Amino acid sequence: MAVTESQLKKMLGKYKYRDLTVQETISVIAQYKDLKPVMDGYVFNDGSSRELMSLTGTIPPMSDLIGLIQVMIVVFGEEPPVFSRPTISAAYPPYQATGPPNSSYMPGMPSGISFPPGPPPNPSGYPNYPYPPPSGPFPATTSTQHYPSQPPVTTVGE
């Protein structure tokens, strides 16, 4: 049983863009005979609900999700369905770069200064005390025990 234009207009009586929705629904149903319009309740994220129409049925096996996504990318790229408006204007103007990126650039440092590789000569901050040169990964460990071994302590409850 085919759905008529008058039946769709009656179903979509409260729709804001009823006539456009009816035209597009009729075009889709004419192309895909297995799709049928159905009115059903829909609950939105904010908890409100409305009666909305959906098309229920099957589309041909030659249709696929990849094709749908590709078409949506093209259509949404030309006319985005959703956009946002800024609620607060930016407090600061955007940063404007003054030149090309430079891997040796350090903010606040004059250009042309290079640093030697390795640790700084005096990382402790004490003047006239140079940092000792590395003599290996760590000091050698000794087998001398600093504390004599003690038997475990046992406590008896009173």
UniProtKB/TrEMBL annotation:
Stretches that traverse the bilayer: none
Domain of life, per lineage: Eukaryota
InterPro entries: ESCRT-I_UEV_domain, UBQ-conjugating_enzyme/RWD, UEV_N
Domain UEV: 2-158
Composition bias, Pro residues: 116-137
Residues covered by region (Disordered): 100-158
Biased segments, Low complexity type: 106-115
Annotated CDD domains: UEV_TSG101-like
UniProt-recorded name of the protein: UEV domain-containing protein
Organism: Phrynosoma platyrhinos
Organism classification: Eukaryota, Metazoa, Chordata, Craniata, Vertebrata
